[in-house]
Amino acid sequence: MCLLCGSQRNKVFAHVSSFGFPLVYYQCDDCGMIYQLPQASQAADPDFYAETYRKIYQATDEPTPKDLWVQEHRASSLVKILQTVLDEPPARVLDIGASTGILLHFFQKAFDSAVIGVEPGEAYRRHAQNRGITMYAALDELLVSNPTRFDLISLIHVLEHLPDPANTLTTIRRELLQEGGVLLLEVPNFYAHDSYELAHLACYTPHSLQNILRQAGYHVFFFHRHGFPRSSLLNLYLTLMAQPLPDDVIQPAIVPDRMVRLKRRAGMSYRRVIQKLFPHRAWLPLPDERAD
Ligand SMILES: [Zn+2]
Question: Which of 156, 246, 253, 277 is most buried, most CB within 10 Å of its CB?
Fold first, then answer.
């Protein structure tokens, strides 16, 4: 079933392999969304995240220096964006997929926010707890604790991993986000990022990302394509901010995503050319690749 519109009608979009697992991505006939069938994907199993995910991706369940470097640079950039966009600092912040708590730590420093995190990976959760951050292993666990609503909720490179993203976003709006609060999202951009990965149940285009936010009852007021901190030339990521709409606001019908295959091909061709012409700006060096 389509992760965006719920349609059963689809066609195979791509057969790929990731970490030795064969993957099939489908395209929805009705809305154009690209997704794996969660029931067919091992990555939809919660136990997969608790243990297997980090091990497969990093050959260890402990955070790697590269991972931490990316998260730190990403966090400082997100805080800067929020400082220019928000009218007042968020008093209460929730980060879903909080990893080692780096982003929440930045929120504490920049905004003096009270912060809570959700992170299924045990080793990562422990790191965040060691920073003094209150952590939950799953969103459901947080929900049953009946928390006070949040002014800011972030999902940074998380939405593409969720087996039912539209419903999760709706639950966040109805039960966790303050009226007038802000949802902050970042996902890989299907038109520049490889995107095909074992644990990526959906691949978002700028269009389908905005569609799913509307579908879940949000108004998108900030949308940014960029490569920070990995590239100064490729728009690898999509960052957006949205506010919840009241339940009685009638959302416009989903406008289907058109020519996705063509745009994917064009995007990946552009990427290959840019990598060849400007290798050092297409991919900025990571810490272990730096001279110092
Ligand atoms: Zn669909």
Answer: 156
